[in-house]
Amino acid sequence: MSFTAAQRREIRSIVALMGANKRGIITSYQPAPPMVKVQIMPAPPASDGPPPETGWIPYKSWATGLGGNGWCAVAPPQAGQQVLLICEEADGANYTAWGGYYSDADAAPQGAQAGEILLQHQSGAQLYLKADGAISIVTTELNIAAPSGGDTTVNISGSLNVSVETNTAGKAFTPHTHPYIPGDGSETQTGQPQG
């Protein structure tokens, strides 16, 4: 089957309207609701003007709890991050931004193996879920609070090994003594805790 020149032009114009998945670079982010603007790549030749930019489009989340119920996650993207633009319903103006790509400018954290999850901040802070079940946290400050402002319970089964000097409310966990005041009003020091 052969097409006339006019038919070929018509086919090309229809295909162009269908749109396709593309890559792009985030230019803006708004937190509520989470949406982004993306500069579509590759950029056209300079003579054709600046690269086109989407309007506000959805940014795919790892998980969205229905109505706030269940687990949800948010990792707001930054300007300059590369994403995949998924073209929805063959509409070249209807995109959703998905994920990101590692590049020379945005290198992947090193160390994680298959089956592991490593979250790393540019400061060096890390949350590392290892394949053997261990969890490694690297941070300068760790805050734990109950969601509703109530009490928080920490349960530890087995042994807790502390390899550095630790203190709670100014009380060191390392061997130390406490004053002992018997009923006669005198005061002596207790011995150090025994392991």
Structure overview:
There is one protein chain. The protein has 195 residues and is mostly beta strands. It has a domain of 107 residues: Gp5 N-terminal domain (OB fold (Dihydrolipoamide Acetyltransferase, E2P), Beta Barrel). Helix content is 7%, strand content 26%. It contains 1 helix and 12 strands; from the N terminus they run αββββββββββββ. A hairpin with a 7-residue loop joins strand 4 and strand 5.
Total beta strands: 12
In the CATH hierarchy, the third-tier topology of one domain is known as OB fold (Dihydrolipoamide Acetyltransferase, E2P)
- The whole-angstrom Rg is 29 Å
CATH superfamily of one domain: Gp5 N-terminal domain
CATH class of one domain: Mainly Beta
Q: Going across the biggest sheet, name each strand in turn.
A: 3-2-1-4-5
Percentage of helical residues?
A: under 10%
Distance between the termini: 89 Å
Helices and strands, in N-to-C order? HEEEEEEEEEEEE
Q: Sketch the major β-sheet.
A: 5 strands, antiparallel
Strand content: 25-35%
Structural class: mainly beta
The CATH architecture of one domain comes to Beta Barrel
Judging from the principal axes of the Cα atoms, what is the shape? elongated
Average pLDDT rating: 78
Total helical segments: 1
Give the low-confidence spans: none
